[in-house]
Design a protein that fits this description.
Distance between the termini of chain A: 58 Å
Order of helices and strands of chain B: HEHHEEEHEEHHEHEEEEEEHEEHEH
Shape of chain B: elongated
Low-confidence stretches of chain B: 325-333
CATH architecture of the largest domain in chain B: Orthogonal Bundle
Number of domains of chain A: 4
Structural class of chain B: alpha+beta
Strand order of the largest sheet of chain A: 8-7-6-5-9
CATH class of the largest domain in chain A: Mainly Alpha
Radius of gyration of chain A: 28 Å
Helix content of chain B: 25-40%
Oligomer: heterodimer
Largest sheet of chain A: 5 strands, antiparallel
CATH class of the largest domain in chain B: Mainly Alpha
Mean pLDDT of chain A: 88
Helix content of chain A: 40-55%
Structural class of chain A: alpha+beta
Shape of chain A: elongated
Number of strands of chain A: 13
Distance between the termini of chain B: 44 Å
CATH topology of the largest domain in chain A: Arc Repressor Mutant, subunit A
Chain lengths: ~325, ~325
């Protein structure tokens, strides 16, 4: 059931968003808090339904759902227990402290900062996070800031095509363990992974999720493009402190890996391969040494360069490149 | 313009932002407010009308008397399509950012930091701290790995700021290098790749250049004359180019996204998909075919298919005499275990 599922007659009189807003106004107007009974009997949206004969049980359920929905919007609903009976929620009082609800007024932005924020809010293009970015920008804008000249000449975009992204982000926010089917290249079937997700990381244009693999209690990084089915959030949660600094650790992990793991390549000068690889590598006597994080992704790229590049080392990378070239030759080499 | 928010909670979230917005604006047209909230004017009008039935509960049976409710100047709305609050009974403050809103902006800032002139100014560092302080709960870490700013990118930035043309050597794949003079219009960053769009003096048209293929770039003292030109979409081929017919397993379609975005026709039967795509040079698909390792078969034109086979064959010849192909990679060093 959602907040929209009201008896038709009541829904016609009071849209659910009206009830939610009336509730926020009421809870912000009180210092000592309102009891549930007071709320259900006086706040518009509940009161009419109580008067129309809705059961107390149904109204209380609606109130619980509304609280949950408002908290998801970031509205901090505080529960003040009875001093004498702290565990007895019947006498609990509810309120929304303005100081925690409102954007702190001491946060101010210079026109230059607003220009950068505008650019930052635009990176999501058509992705669903674009709605969130624009909503955030609107809230900051209501602090009353003049908008400076926009930063022209740049159109930075973050691509987001993986269906796994949104459920993983939600699981990180809620500190919930997730499972997903993960297909590694060269393996026939996907294997279900169970992790505590801690951060999402875009590295070299690809999204990764970083977390702790619950089976082996080790930190692991997974490519979102290899998640081949639904991401499911489990009931099982984890401590929010695990998330502290996780993004930095994830980035550090991939950078360390790229430092340890390099390929020696012979590249024909003046080719596409030379232009793309020399920028990322360091010259050696026998060619150029280029760091990489994933042997399969790098092999895809190197194979596309065809005769422009020859892999000297490591053998595993060389074999992967040859395997791709051989397959491409077999598929396109036969007469049609 | 987005559709009307479907969920009541989403509509409530917008209306929580509406009051502080209207207070700050004083008076605003329905059209302007609608634009600022990404809704239609009709939706904005309905939100404003709804606001007037919201307010403090009142007490002792005197429920929601007129001064307990939000109110607007109705004549102004009916006759002039303008909104002005005449009574506010709360919600004056903008709500804190949700974790999702903060995360979306924080990730965008990390990408903005990679732009020349933005990252080193200290602006982003200050913003990251302020946004973290303005969120109602801890946002999920969304990290965008920084890309190094090289000389080419720095110089393009300088040219954009000074409004002068740049001159550089451009080496497109499988084409001889050319020297170009270009009025820079826009730098696009997509999937970690940087592209310069601008007016090419040689071609007398808007062109897109991958910055990795640019070298020997210098600033000229030619003031730009096409800076206002509206750039086309990044990979818009228009009606130019040639059609290529390819076939691949339906399961790998997502890996070919960049090509399929420009596809003319895509049909899937069983586990195989066929697509017709428009490219400037059909033989350029040899790179796609080799990189996808047998997943992509070029059906037509025959020349492109032969080019793909030859591309793979000549690449393999480089390894003649090496050990025969070894074991498959089992211990990928990617830390996914």
């Amino acid at each position: 059931m959602s907040a929209d599922d009201l008896p038709a007659s009541a829904a016609a009189r009071n849209a659910p968003e009206e009830r939610l807003l009336n509730l926020v106004v009421a809870l912000m107007a009180t210092d000592q808090g309102l009891t549930k009974d007071t709320i259900l009997g006086s706040v518009s949206g509940y009161r009419e339904q109580a008067e129309a004969g809705a059961s107390k049980d149904a109204l209380e359920k609606m109130f619980e759902r509304d609280k949950e929905n408002l908290r998801a919007l970031g509205v901090p609903i505080e529960t003040i227990g009875d001093r004498l009976e702290p565990d007895d929620l019947r006498q609990a009082r509810y309120r929304v402290p303005t100081s925690e609800y409102a954007l702190p007024e001491e946060i101010t932005f210079t026109p230059e900062e607003i220009a950068v924020l505008n650019l930052a809010a635009g990176v999501w293009g058509e992705a669903s996070l674009s709605v969130d970015a624009r909503s955030g920008l609107r809230k900051l804008g209501s602090l009353g800031i003049a908008v400076d000249e926009p930063i022209i000449g740049y159109s930075p975009r973050i691509s987001l095509h993986e269906a796994a992204f949104a459920p993983l982000q939600r699981a990180i926010e809620q500190c919930r363990v997730v499972t997903f089917p993960y297909l590694k290249p060269g393996e026939e079937h996907p294997r279900t992974r169970r992790i505590r997700p801690l951060a999402l990381l875009e590295y070299e244009g690809r999204w990764h999720v970083y977390g702790i693999d619950v089976e082996i209690e080790r930190e692991r990084t997974f490519l979102l493009s290899r998640i081949v089915g639904a991401v499911k959030a489990m009931r099982q949660g984890f401590d929010e402190s695990l998330r502290e600094g996780a993004g930095e650790r994830a980035l550090q992990g991939l950078e360390d890996l790229a430092r340890r793991q390099t390929a020696l390549l012979e590249v024909h000068p003046g080719t596409e391969a030379a232009l793309r690889l020399h920028r990322r590598g360091t010259p050696e006597i026998q060619g150029v040494r280029v760091p990489f994080v994933d042997v399969h992704i790098f092999a895809d790229e190197l194979a596309s360069y065809g005769p422009e590049v020859r892999v000297v080392d490591p053998p595993a990378l060389r074999d992967e490149v040859r395997r791709r070239l051989q397959a491409a030759l077999e598929v396109n080499g036969a007469a049609r | 313009m987005t559709a009307r928010p479907v969920l009541a909670t989403d509509r409530a979230a917008l209306m929580l932002q509406l009051v502080p917005y209207l207070i700050r604006k004083g008076e605003v047209s329905v059209a302007e407010a609608a634009t600022d909230f990404d809704v239609t004017p009709a939706q904005m009008r309905s939100m404003v009308e709804k606001l007037t039935v919201i307010g403090r509960p009142g007490d002792n049976g005197y429920w929601q008397m007129a001064n307990d409710l939000f109110d607007i100047d109705w004549d102004l709305l009916d006759e002039h399509d303008r909104i002005s609050l005449t009574n506010a009974v709360g919600l004056e403050h903008a709500p804190r950012l949700t974790a999702r809103e903060a995360a979306a902006l924080l990730a965008g800032l990390q990408l903005a930091r990679s732009l020349p002139g933005v990252g080193d100014s200290g602006v982003v560092a200050g913003l990251l701290a302020k946004l973290a302080g303005g969120a109602s709960s801890t946002p999920a870490d969304l990290i965008v790995a920084p890309e190094p700013v090289d000389d080419v990118r720095g110089s393009v930035d300088e040219a954009l700021r000074h409004g002068v043309a740049v001159s550089f050597t451009y080496k497109a794949p499988d084409a001889p290098a050319t020297t170009r003079t270009v009025d820079p219009v826009k730098v696009h960053i997509a999937e970690g790749q940087w592209y310069l769009q601008g007016w090419c003096h040689l071609r007398q048209a808007m062109r897109t250049f991958h910055l990795d293929r640019v070298s020997d770039l210098v600033l000229t003292d030619i003031a730009i004359t096409h800076g206002e030109e509206q750039p086309p979409a990044l990979f818009d081929m228009g009606e130019t180019g040639n059609l290529v017919h390819i076939r691949f397993p339906a399961a790998v379609a997502s890996l070919l996204r960049g090509y399929l975005d420009r596809a003319q026709a895509v049909t899937t039967s069983g586990e195989l998909t066929q697509a017709t795509i428009r490219v400037a040079d059909p033989t350029s698909l040899k790179r796609l075919a080799a990189g996808r390792g047998g997943d992509v078969e070029i059906l037509e034109p025959a020349g492109a298919r032969e080019a793909a086979a030859e591309w793979a064959r000549s690449a393999l010849e480089q390894y003649t005499g090496d050990d025969s192909q070894g074991r498959a990679v089992s211990d990928s060093a990617h830390p996914e275990g």
